[in-house]
């Protein structure tokens, strides 16, 4: 065994040991994270009162209850009772156990199985204030029984319900008042602390509001739901930010907040500080269960500024509803920013969506009920918008096709001198009056629209559960065949719109094959390889998106044939090019600088070749 083999085996051994160490470290970190999440879950889950622990000879022992619950001992036991606030779009069931919503149903929506869509549907979902008991312990109001709970009809058509949590001292109580307007998805939630300034610890400047939220499976694609399960927030400076539950398990927000939102793919629950009030900060922990129908769980603690007034009020608004752009924008607090209309390096396309795509889409949906037809008309509108650039592109391609024999001659003549070839090619383009970048302009113009559609269609709730042709849900993939196995980088189903999109992309590449550099294998075959590479990505995306791309390709193929057949005269273009060559060529400043730079590079390359030649001699 030679020295190189020994070194190779040593390096492999080091890599193997490093991998084992890294893997073990990751497992330990994952176990610590799981233990932390389980600890948070246990801390926040409902704590039923063990009545036997606070009784003597079968009779409630008030001394023991006071010892455990302090001034709130009278609320330790009770009988659960419910009441309902309801309008046309939402039905909220409240419970006196915690004085909080226990069920929230969106009446105009169904889940992927056709069942009523519930945003709150388990004991995990809790809204609770932390209040002090004896021995420096804290109680969660979600574990206590409130009084009241009678529904009141208000003159403006709103409904209200009030829950009160009294202390053992007369005139001291905590009160939650909920008001649901006649229409809309938001319910006002007013927190009143009356006479509690001496009950709460001295120096306490904030009240901790615990908000536990569980997102159950609403759509058929769990993986896509988890990618869209996020926590969004906006601070008092108007800055919006977010994180995804599956990627971030803990976030501490040391800033004053206007709102905090737990977003699902098409729905969200948001706590909004009303009437100039603001949350002092928040701490958010998240958990994504490994199995089951739970998409994600959020444990949030929001700090409420507390001025220790005798009659303290903090106004909150809770939004239970869809991620509908117009609805969220109506709040005028930037809540619509939770809808992913463009992010990262393509953040600018959100303006294309806001100013072009969404207004046209809303206009068409105002009088057309079939969203498949709306997508067709939207596609035609966009293609009409960029039609002048498309025409110029095909004209430029025709000019390049006419010049191709001369370009091939230059390429053969200067095969060993790429710098000179580039300069001569630019001279040819200039003398012929051809802009070599003319064919790129439509692609540049169309790219923001393509990216905007990539963001718009998968997040548009209007398309949710809307069918067209064989697609049962335009917001999800259109599976025509479910496979009993999973194909790597593809999936376990076959999306027909994705196949049609890929096929038409290959047809476009074939039609434009003359424009690629045939001497460069990468440029020659990339137009064919790229659509196939994207097949696995688009196979699980919204069928509305793949239908749009397919339709756009079909229109491109049709336009290409029509323009080249009836509008582009190659003989006329050839004659025009020859006529341009006879004219005295004027140079623009940009072209002059470019040619000067190319000449300097050519001279430098020639000098380097001369130096190398002398060294050889």
Automatic annotation (TrEMBL):
Keywords: Cell membrane, Chaperone, Membrane, Protein transport, Transmembrane, Transmembrane helix, Transport. InterPro entries: Membr_insert_YidC, Membr_insert_YidC_N, YidC/ALB3/OXA1/COX18, YidC/Oxa/ALB_C, YidC_ALB_C, YidC_periplasmic_sf. Coiled coil: none annotated. GO terms for biological process: protein insertion into membrane; protein transport. The keyword Transmembrane helix applies. Residues 578-617 are annotated as: Disordered. The keyword Transmembrane helix applies. It comes from the Bacteria. Belongs to the OXA1/ALB3/YidC family. Type 1 subfamily. Interacts with the Sec translocase complex via SecD. Specifically interacts with transmembrane segments of nascent integral membrane proteins during membrane integration. This is Membrane protein insertase YidC.
């Amino acid at each position: 065994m030679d020295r190189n083999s020994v070194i190779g085996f040593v390096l492999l051994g080091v890599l193997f040991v490093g991998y084992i160490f890294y893997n073990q470290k990751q497992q330990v970190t994952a176990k610590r994270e799981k233990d932390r999440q389980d600890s948070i879950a246990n801390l926040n889950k409902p704590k039923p009162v063990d009545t036997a622990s606070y009784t003597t000879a079968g009779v409630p022992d008030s001394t023991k209850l006071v010892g455990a619950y302090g001034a709130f001992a009278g609320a330790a036991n009770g009988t659960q009772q419910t009441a309902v606030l309801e309008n046309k779009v939402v039905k909220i069931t409240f419970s006196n156990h915690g004085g909080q919503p226990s069920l929230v149903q969106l009446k105009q929506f169904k889940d992927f199985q056709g069942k009523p869509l519930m945003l709150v549907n388990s004991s995990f979902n809790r809204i609770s204030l932390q209040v002090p008991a004896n021995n420096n312990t804290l109680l969660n109001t979600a574990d206590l029984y409130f009084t009241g709970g009678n529904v009141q009809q208000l003159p403006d058509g709103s409904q209200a319900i009030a829950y009160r949590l009294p202390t053992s001292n007369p005139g001291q109580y905590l009160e939650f008042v909920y008001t649901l307007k006649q229409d809309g998805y938001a319910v006002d939630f007013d927190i009143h602390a009356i006479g509690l300034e001496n009950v709460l610890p001295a120096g306490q400047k904030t009240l901790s509001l615990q908000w536990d939220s569980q997102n159950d499976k609403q759509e058929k694609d769990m993986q896509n739901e988890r990618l869209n399960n996020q926590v969004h927030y906006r601070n008092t400076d108007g800055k919006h930010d977010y994180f995804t539950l599956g990627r971030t398990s803990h976030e501490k927000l040391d800033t004053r907040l206007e709102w905090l939102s737990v977003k699902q793919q098409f729905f969200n629950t948001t706590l909004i500080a009303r009437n100039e009030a603001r949350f002092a900060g928040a701490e958010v922990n998240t958990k994504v269960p490994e199995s089951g129908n739970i998409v994600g769980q959020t444990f949030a603690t929001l700090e409420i500024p507390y001025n220790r007034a005798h009659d303290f009020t903090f106004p909150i608004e809770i939004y239970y509803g869809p991620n509908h752009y117009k609805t969220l924008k109506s709040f005028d607090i930037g809540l619509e920013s939770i809808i992913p209309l463009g992010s990262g390096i393509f953040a600018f396309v959100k303006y294309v969506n806001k100013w072009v795509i969404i207004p046209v889409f809303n206009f068409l949906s105002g009088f057309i009920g079939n969203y498949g037809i709306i997508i067709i008309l939207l596609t035609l509108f966009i293609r009409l918008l960029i039609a002048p650039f498309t025409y110029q592109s095909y004209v430029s391609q025709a000019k390049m096709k006419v010049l191709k024999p001369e370009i091939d001659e230059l390429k053969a003549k200067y095969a060993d001198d790429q710098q000179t070839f580039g300069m001569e090619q630019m001279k040819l383009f200039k003398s012929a009056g051809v802009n070599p970048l003319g064919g790129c302009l439509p692609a540049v113009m169309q790219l923001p629209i393509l990216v905007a559609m990539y963001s718009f269609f998968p997040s548009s709730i209007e398309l949710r559960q809307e069918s067209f042709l064989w697609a049962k849900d335009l917001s999800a993939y259109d599976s025509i065949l479910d496979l009993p196995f999973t194909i790597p980088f593809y999936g376990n189903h076959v999306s027909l719109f994705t196949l049609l999109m890929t096929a038409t992309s290959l047809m476009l590449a074939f039609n434009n094959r003359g424009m690629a550099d045939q001497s460069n294998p990468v440029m020659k075959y990339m137009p064919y390889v790229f659509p196939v590479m994207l097949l696995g990505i688009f196979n699980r995306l919204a069928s509305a998106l793949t239908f749009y791309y397919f339709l756009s390709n079909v229109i491109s193929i049709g336009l290409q044939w029509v323009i080249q057949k009836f509008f582009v005269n190659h003989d006329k273009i050839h004659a025009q090019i020859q006529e341009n060559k006879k004219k005295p060529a004027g140079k623009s400043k940009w072209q002059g600088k470019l040619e000067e730079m190319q000449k300097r590079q050519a001279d430098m390359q020639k000098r380097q070749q001369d130096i190398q030649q002398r060294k050889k001699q």
